[in-house]
Amino acid sequence: MLSVDDVTFSYVAGAPVLADIDFKVASGEVVAIVGRNGAGKSTLLRLLNGLFQPESGAIIVAGNATSDTPVHILARSIGTVFQAPEQQIFNPRVRDEIAFGPKQLGLTGATLEARIAEVLERIGLASEADAHPLDLDQSARRMVAIGSVLAMQPPILLLDEAQRGLDKTAITRLSTIIETEKARGTAVILVCHDMDFVARQADRVLGLARGRLAANLPTKAFFTDKALTASIGVEVPDVLALSEALALPPTLTPAAFADAYMARERT
Amino acid sequence: MALLEVHDLAFRFPRAEKLVLDGVSFSVERGERVAILSPNAGGKTTLARWLAGLLPDGVLKAERGHVSMDGKDWTEWHIAERSSAIQYVGQVPSQQMTGCAFTVFEEIAFGPCNLALPEAEVRARVDEAMTVCNLRHLVDRDPFTLSGGEQQRLSIAAALAMKPQVLILDEPTSNLDPESRDDLLAQLELLPGELTIVVLEVALRPSLALADRFLLLDEGRIAVDGPAIDVLTHPRCIETLGMTAITEAGRRIQNAGGWAEGRPLPLTLADALQTLQVPDAVR
Amino acid sequence: MASGSKQEAGKQSLLFTPGESLLHKANPLTSLVIMLWMISAAAVLPTAGTAILVLAAITVSMATGVGKRSVKRLLITMTPIGVALIVVHGLLIERPDQTDLGLVAISPDGLDYALKVFMRVAAMLMATLLFVTTTHPSEMLKALDQRGVPPGVGYLVASPLLLIEPFSDRAKAIRDAQRVRGLDLTGSWKARIIALPILLMPLITLALSDLDQRASILSGRAFRAFPRRTVINAPHDSTFQVWFRRILVAVAVLQLGIPLLWHF
């Protein structure tokens, strides 16, 4: 679905921000990009959606090379939710904001209405369709922005710190959205600092360190490699640390931990 | 007399149907470290602005109730007195800059200069604030070119330079990456013990490091008030804010019958290590 | 985003160039008065006078080490103005002295007038450039504070200079966000004009909420609590500079006043 082949990028010639980046993301896969601030996560994101062009190497998004596809056309294949996306809202009604993307794709009439209704339901704002987005609280506004991307039904979805600052209800909703997208075969890419969220959502982790791809591993294998997580500068999820401290098999979620713990208690 | 007192505060924004705050009452004693937890639409930032005396502001008034400090209603305070008594640091670091300062030094000195303090006093205050917030190496930088974490430390330094008795922090760590967050938490540890700190948070984990008393602000009212264990395991808190991953693990074990009677649920990794059984073989 | 590149960009929004010249060391008010005097002189002098003024200002800017930057700005701004003036006054406006050159008719009077306006604008621009390249706005703010100018006035001077940077960052972020939602900014002019509100609406909304936000930040830091603020590292002033400014202001007033009296 997404293929990044040996990509290098620099803002200033001779000082690459990203070098030799090489990975693939398959349809229906949830992949997290992690790393310290300044490791190149934001840059990589902008390469994937075509806002930046690789200096060398190639990025193929759903069959289109980012180097010869305009950003707004690429948007049909790869939907991006930037950080604080509530700041991009410009329509006076929630419904219109959701409709913006699909309209760019040429959708009209009943198809458009059906698409809007479906998305409003998924973001939990069906009753607020005619509200002014600025009258909503911040997490609801963020959901509107996420919905405006979902409405384009891109085969690849990029979420940049979309969970940040959300409360339980909103995070649960976001998790459901990610799971539904995965089930529908969307390739989901999370840029995320919250390792508990990564541990729960991601199938695989790409770790960036100083502009290089230092890890490309299944989530559990990634988090159980102490030297690797330390060099990439991410914290280990609490539950995993706990399972290790108690000499249980490594677990990533509270449910898995409780099962492992109880299994031992019963023996 | 309590240092900061909120009495039956009710407030709605103009033209809004619903009250954001609907009879909030609590008080804060000198030197307390309090976390007010609230889900996204819970009225957190509005309450923070009331606590800090930024509301009422002429147009926006309370429906009923009031907030007072040292027994005096905020409306009776002169701006210079108020800003020397309490300081508020908001959520988005870049939006906490005054837009009046070309350097980090000027940003911190801005408030004390407005108080018309002697030059030597201003310098001493800036110096102290820069030390506490680890900003010395950035003294001549343009505030708008700093990273989010640096800006957050800068806005706290600028607040501290006003020598307030109370510091209100609205989600101080929500826009920071884990490293900047840990740095900031470590800086906050260094603040003088007599400084009263009120943090408003949606996330449970960072607030555990900052406070010893917790309040749950739920639908415009204080639903629970007490130590971490009472508030974070309160059903309403769990319903609106969830649990830390550790608490959730503990509760699942409890539900499965693997938990001793009356033992409190763990909140942090350290709690869990103390309460969960480590087999002898590992010990 | 690499923090290094951003740090350099931060300095570019100001034209100020550090230096050790007399103009750099002068009290900002003195520099300001010199600028105002030059502008008033440019308003009344004949073309030869304004030309000398421009040359003098360029020479001074070279001597103070800000020449390169000032002259570059001067050329960037004045070239299109010059071309427009020549076309409009020299060629397009009908005048009695027009000489027909076949395709176009050229008017020496019109060219004279174009040159007069050109030199006047150039002199005023050069005066301003000389001021902004040698006076840091922060020093200007301090000088204003020191004179007891209400803090609000200083804020009006400083904040636009400081807020350009975050404002343009945000404009870029909004543009990126809309493009990745399928907004076409590469198409026809018509498409781009239609796209304008999509880019401007969030920017305006955010700017308005920023104003509110900033007002409360300023209030929290006791802004305008007292009519006077403390000035740290107040810019140096001297009796000589005080008298120099007074004389220059008097000269500027006379310069502007005498021709007025003459005509009536």
From TrEMBL, chain A:
GO terms for cellular component: ATP-binding cassette (ABC) transporter complex. Transmembrane segments: none annotated. InterPro entries: AAA+_ATPase, ABC_transporter-like_ATP-bd, ABC_transpr_CbiO/EcfA_su, ECF_ABC_transporter_ATP-bd, P-loop_NTPase. GO terms for molecular function: ATP binding; ATP hydrolysis activity; ATPase-coupled transmembrane transporter activity. Residues 2-235 form the ABC transporter domain. It comes from the Bacteria. Keywords: ATP-binding, Nucleotide-binding, Transport. It holds the Pfam family ABC_tran. The keyword Protein biosynthesis does not apply. Belongs to the ABC transporter superfamily. This is Energy-coupling factor transport system ATP-binding protein. It comes from Kaistia soli DSM 19436.
UniProtKB/TrEMBL annotation, chain B:
PROSITE patterns: ABC_TRANSPORTER_1, ABC_TRANSPORTER_2. This is Energy-coupling factor transport system ATP-binding protein. It comes from the Bacteria. Keywords: ATP-binding, Nucleotide-binding, Transport. Belongs to the ABC transporter superfamily. Transmembrane segments: none annotated. It comes from Kaistia soli DSM 19436. Gene3D superfamilies: P-loop containing nucleotide triphosphate hydrolases. SUPFAM superfamilies: P-loop containing nucleoside triphosphate hydrolases. The lineage of its organism: Bacteria, Pseudomonadati, Pseudomonadota, Alphaproteobacteria, Hyphomicrobiales. GO terms for molecular function: ATP binding; ATP hydrolysis activity; ATPase-coupled transmembrane transporter activity. One of its GO terms (cellular component) is ATP-binding cassette (ABC) transporter complex.
UniProtKB/TrEMBL annotation, chain C:
It holds the Pfam family CbiQ. This is Energy-coupling factor transport system permease protein. GO terms for cellular component: plasma membrane. InterPro entries: ABC/ECF_trnsptr_transmembrane. Belongs to the CbiQ family. It comes from Kaistia soli DSM 19436. Keywords: Membrane, Transmembrane, Transmembrane helix. It is found in: Membrane. CDD domains: EcfT. It is a multi-pass membrane protein. The chain crosses the membrane at residues 34-62, 74-93, 113-132, 243-262. It comes from the Bacteria. Its main location: membrane.
